[in-house]
Amino acid sequence: MLAFIFLILGSFLLILQTSLFTILPKWIGNPDLLFLVIIFMACRLDTYQGAILTLVFGLLMDIFSGIVPGLFPAVYLGLFATIKLLSKHFIIDEPSHQPPLAVAGYLLASGAIYLYTAFFSPDVTLFWSWRDLLLQMFILGILSVPSYHVFGSIQHLVASGGYKLWFSPRSRAGNRFIR
């Protein structure tokens, strides 16, 4: 159930960032909210469940971007594996560690995407702008803490079985006055 909820949430955020956020002016920035979901999944979800969801999100991002087929799944899975390996030796799943993790991960992922397209696909030109990259990293750093808390509360709600309250319109049957 948790994987399905994160699949729906990540798909919604991907559609939001590829449709609504592209209309915004360039100076406001275009936050990559799916990236925050991938970082959260790498920190808090099971390895296999998170890797499959990361692969699906990479494939969806590949469909929406259309740069080089297979680029985003490879970069996202590499980031997922790196964070999983780091989390075995360091405590990185604390909320205070999420802004530096999101910023560093976004810088590495953007650099990997740029280098891959520069070396293996010279006909595709990507514009590298430090201003846009720093703006993206600043936005992700700010949004990482609230999104980490929202994703954590969703995970806790599903783990505790509280999502059943949303789907049942009425309480238990029977006489509730006699205990």
Account of the 3D structure:
The chain is an all-alpha fold and 179 residues long. The chain has one domain (2-17, 31-161): Arp2/3 complex 21 kDa subunit ARPC3. Helices cover 71% and strands 0% of the residues. It is built from seven helices and no strands. It has helices at 2-20, 33-44, 47-65, 71-89, 98-120, 130-160, 164-167.
Strand content: under 5%
- The CATH topology label is Arp2/3 complex 21 kDa subunit ARPC3
Count of distinct structural domains: 1
CATH class: Mainly Alpha
Tally the helices: 7
Give a brief rundown of this model.
The protein is an all-alpha fold and 179 residues long.
Descriptive labels:
Arp2/3 complex 21 kDa subunit ARPC3; mainly alpha; single chain; 179 residues; globular; 7 helices
